Amino acid sequence: GYVQGMSDLLSPLYLLFKDKLMAFWAFVGYMDMVEAHFFLDQQKIQGKLADLSSLVYYCDSELYNHLEKEDSSNFFFCFRWLLINFKREFRGDDILELWEVIWTCPYNTDYTLFIATAILLQERTPIIQKKMCFADILRYINDLSQHIDLREVLGNTESLFHNIRSQPDIPFNIRTNILRIAETPLSSLGSQYNPNRDIAEKTPEPEPADHVITSRDMDESRDPASLLVENVSNMS
Fold it and tell me: Could you tell me the pTM of the whole model?
């Protein structure tokens, strides 16, 4: 059945396709990806908020300590962001571009967590300096709606992601639960295992830190609607 927030996911698809049937099937594919967000037990969203908390703590302990002091370290003020993938935070075509970045992210991770972290780091100064309590933070975050610069967020998110991924001392929960970097014991690979050769052969080159993954990286000769259907189908 319908749960509040689902219409937020459907409306951009309908505006894109301008066809009820196409929009419906794109929506079905999208819901296959995010249906757990709408379960009554909210277990999926609670888990994502916990992961977001871990990321912010790792990236900015000062901001995290302020949130904890103000009983805001549950990050409930970001609930809407994660529930509907920032749909209400960006204007028009920006949300479709952001969703396309999320869907086509080449890494085995939940990129929405890095987007949320990047936005919070951008807004850390007023939150800390004004000593905002939970109610103030919630109001402040909600007021950001339609006033967030997509290009700035995408650039900061990619830089943040590569910076964290390159660290040698990534906490275990971030490495396994968020970055999802598999760790294989060397002993299980046999005596012929050569780590340098394995890295050279199997590790893909990372995206340059100044490169922002956008829909413009895709073949511009193709119809945007067909690209969106393909992305949703591939992720479902």
Answer: 0.76
